[in-house]
Amino acid sequence: MSGQLILVTGVTGFIAGHVANQLLAAGYRVRGTTRGDKAKQLTETIKVPGLEFVRVDDVATDDLSEALKGVYAIAHVASPLPGRTDTDDTLNSAIDGTVHVLKEATKAGIKKLVITSSFGALLDPSLIPGFHGLTFDHKNWGTVSREAARAKADDAYYVYFASKVLAEKAIWDYAAEHPELDIATVLPAFVYGPYAEHFPLPKQSALGTNGFIYALVAGGVPPVIPPFTVDVRDVAKTHVLAFSVGPKPLGEKRYISSGGNITWGEAAAALKKAHPELKLADSFPELPGPASTLDNKYTTEQLNFGTWIKPEETIVAASEALLELQKTW
Length: 329
What we know:
The chain is of the alpha/beta class.
């Protein structure tokens, strides 16, 4: 490691902040990209040894040559949240934007990249196979086209997961043409958990997947989704460990990041046990079929991962962070 510099895209994001902090803890230096005047504000307000910020208004289109000066490797984490942009913007940002980062890395002579994908790249973007009692591993792939995603433009989550399938396929297509690159992808389950130390906290309108936990804590019933769960701290750990793995044959460095399954009913029970004072919903809809699972064995073995944070702990940690966050709104 010896203080090698890693560029982390979208560093103020939920996952990226944790990636940055864990890279620093592992002995790397970090340069985080952020939009507009935020880079200047963060430079003035966040004084963490080894952490610096650079302005990149659009990582999907901007010239990154300045941002990549002296960089050893890239953690490309930035991605649009579901429903925050229109269909074409979501697809272009995810697919063309990811390829743009790869091209800029190639131009700068950077060979090592760890890129955030999603469990959604493993199955159909409808997520219906998530209720078929199946087991998904790193060899599985979803199938979708841009046209199919456009046809479901009114379904923000379908478009988002379609963008993840297509973006990851584009990554490995590019890697096949550039064998000098050493690429890993991280495929997290639904990501929950506390917020990264040092970084700005999100507004209520930008909670991402933690919004499901916020709904739960507020006494609501989150939408029925596959119960795939992972702690944001374990997602960051997956990224950091992936940097230490040497080159492997194409597609072998796909790492599912998943701590296990938990339904909303089970999550509410864990919350009630930890915080009896919370007024939670009394009942939750049944899943439409037997829950599938994300197999993390390959990741655990290949990365020498150790122990994953249990879903119950993740839900409690996320809820406690959200209750604190609520006080700042």
